[in-house]
Amino acid sequence: MKTKAVRIYGVEDLRLEEFELPAIKEDEILAKIVSDSVCMSTFKLAEQGAGHKRAPKDIDKNPVIVGHEFCGEIVEVGAKWQDKFKPGMKFAIQPNINPTTTLYAPGYSYQYCGGDSQYVIIPARAMEVDALLNYENDVFYFGSLAEPMSCIIGGFHTNYHTTPGVYEHRMGIVEGGNCAILAGVGPMGLGAIDYALHCDRKPGRLVVTDIDDARLERASRIYTVEHAKECGVELHYVNTREPESIDYIMSLTGGKGYDDVFVYAPVKPVVEQGSKLLAFDGCLNFFAGPTNTEFSAMFNFYNVHYAAQHLCGSSGGNTDDMIEAIEMMNSGKINPSAMITHVGGLDAAAETTINLPKIPGGKKLIYTHISMPLTAIDDFAKLGETDPMFAELAKIVEANSGLWCPEAEKYLLANAKAL
Question: What pLDDT, on a 0 to 100 scale, did the predictor assign at position 349?
Answer without folding.
Answer: 98
